[in-house]
Amino acid sequence: MQGLLSICAPALPAHTDDWERRLLADPNLLGDIAFAIGGPFHVMYPPRVAVNINGFQRAFERAGVDGVVYFGKKANKAACVARACAENGAGVDVSSVGELNAALSQGVRGDELMVTGPAKSDDLLWLAVRHRALIAVDSLDELDRLAAFTTPAAAARVLLRVLPNGSASRFGMTAGELDRAISVIGASGTVGHESIRLQGFSFHLSGYDAVARAEQADKLITRCLDARTLGHPAGTISIGGGFGVDYVPASAWSEFSDHANGQWFHAGKSFDSYYPYHFPAPGPAMLTTVLEHNALAERLRDNDIRLAVEPGRALLDRAGSSVFRVQGSKTRHIDGHPYRLLTVDGTSLSLSEQWFDSEYLPDPILWPPRPGELTPTCVGAASCLESDMLSWRRIPLPRRAEVGDLLIYPNTAGYQMDSNESAFHELPIPPKVVLHDTGDRLRWTLDAG
């Protein structure tokens, strides 16, 4: 056993919710869905999205801050997520005509949309104005194009996207560009684009640094106050997304990240970096940290400024999983020790972290549960590419996986399901199954998206 452990990565069990435990404990439900679908599929549980939305809303309430949550729709296309936003007081952040229409079709109202992204199409700008969406303007030329779709009776509501000092991002405007943009937007009694209303400013930072977000927001409070002196309403700041998610326990993450080595990976594979799968203050707790830093919440209250956030992954925490069927298996050896190399009926295009030259690390769950011996296992996909691996890491599965078994990758709703899906090899894109709690049991339907 000690030899097997030397070639096997330590366990990285994901945090789970009651709905997931019920799904796994049901002797028939997963197998029935797999039989009906006939291939890989994703499972969604919208009530968990509602819990996550409410967590951010409560963080605002505790701080006494006027805040609004916009779901970053690029993180998951499921219609049930947009419906959960409509039902729980969250808006949706969209970046395409398709995303805008999909949000509207699930009951999100036009003035609950934020439209983001660079160099938006004319069709997207026109629809955004028609639906009174809040538009995050990324450049001066976009501002000029936007003006062509507005009238005094149909004004555009805009935030100006700021390029933070020292950032090499291609998004946002420099200080000089912001000043120029403000000067050409009409304000009360001034000359300019009178059918554009400056509602405030936005920014987005890479990474998960709460302090950096708080300090950038503080700078934009000053920008809002300066814009008000020119007659602009300027009462909203959006700090974007980037709210961490806690996937696995701290001890498990430390054991992996402190000792990771090529012995744990098929073919000696290595990666330069991983998502921080343990995050000590995730989602709403990170928002609280932002609001508490240097009394940001007090400054927002004192100046009557609304704070907007655009979480994607964090609103999908524990809201979905991905299910693959074992289609074949082989035994391979390293240093004289055997391990299993599985092939499943999907591709890593449906588990997107691998396509960013990294690995999705929370352990898959082998179903159905049966007794057995610990078996180091890697998971390959049903394509002709050597690189198409769902798990290069040798996972300590509790028994040997057999053809027909299911592997459930947990907590994949945030970006994993949708970022890189493709009908490669003309394989169908895995559908999304929505679970419904009817009290005594879970039932399922196909997602409407």
From TrEMBL:
<keyword id="KW-0663">Pyridoxal phosphate</keyword>
<dbReference type="InterPro" id="IPR029066">
    <property type="entry name" value="PLP-binding_barrel"/>
</dbReference>
<dbReference type="GO" id="GO:0008784">
    <property type="term" value="F:alanine racemase activity"/>
</dbReference>
<dbReference type="Pfam" id="PF02784">
    <property type="entry name" value="Orn_Arg_deC_N"/>
</dbReference>
<protein>
    <submittedName>
        <fullName>Alanine racemase</fullName>
        <ecNumber>5.1.1.1</ecNumber>
    </submittedName>
</protein>
<dbReference type="InterPro" id="IPR000183">
    <property type="entry name" value="Orn/DAP/Arg_de-COase"/>
</dbReference>
<feature type="domain" description="Orn/DAP/Arg decarboxylase 2 N-terminal">
    <location>
        <begin position="58"/>
        <end position="261"/>
    </location>
</feature>
<keyword id="KW-0413">Isomerase</keyword>
<dbReference type="InterPro" id="IPR022644">
    <property type="entry name" value="De-COase2_N"/>
</dbReference>
<dbReference type="InterPro" id="IPR009006">
    <property type="entry name" value="Ala_racemase/Decarboxylase_C"/>
</dbReference>
